[in-house]
Design goal:
With 117 residues, this protein is an all-beta fold. The chain has no helices and eleven strands. The mean pLDDT is 96.
């Protein structure tokens, strides 16, 4: 059974940092691609960061320079700094054995990140 489990969310103040983790039931190198998505209230889902099997990363313009995706043997990370209220959302990790484009086949349950003063 494929499982992706996020942790590390919570409430922080603007300007603070937070690191999300996503533990995979399979080695991260198994996946052709992994990604972090977020969905803010009343908004569409947004892909904020992705990483492929070679380790190449891509970021949404809204988080470039502030968010960093990386991976260990079984964990995908999202290091977030200089957080803004606009970063408030439910963050989910995703993984797929297939290269893109196309939606991801495997998803975590999501975790809340709230940025508020």
């Amino acid at each position: 059974e494929v499982r992706l489990v996020e942790s590390g969310g919570g409430s922080v103040q603007p300007g603070e940092s937070l690191t999300l983790s996503c533990v995979s039931s399979q080695y991260t190198g198994t996946w052709a691609r992994m990604a972090w998505f977020r969905r803010a209230a009343g908004k569409d889902r947004e892909e904020v960061a992705s990483i492929d099997r070679s380790g190449r990363t891509r970021y949404a313009d809204s988080v470039k320079g502030r968010f960093t995706a990386s991976r260990g043997s079984t964990t995908l990370y999202l290091a977030m700094r200089d957080l803004e209220p606009e970063d408030t959302a439910i963050y989910s990790c995703a993984a797929d054995l297939r290269q893109g484009p196309g939606d991801y086949a495997n998803w975590g349950q999501g975790i809340q990140v709230t940025v508020s003063s």
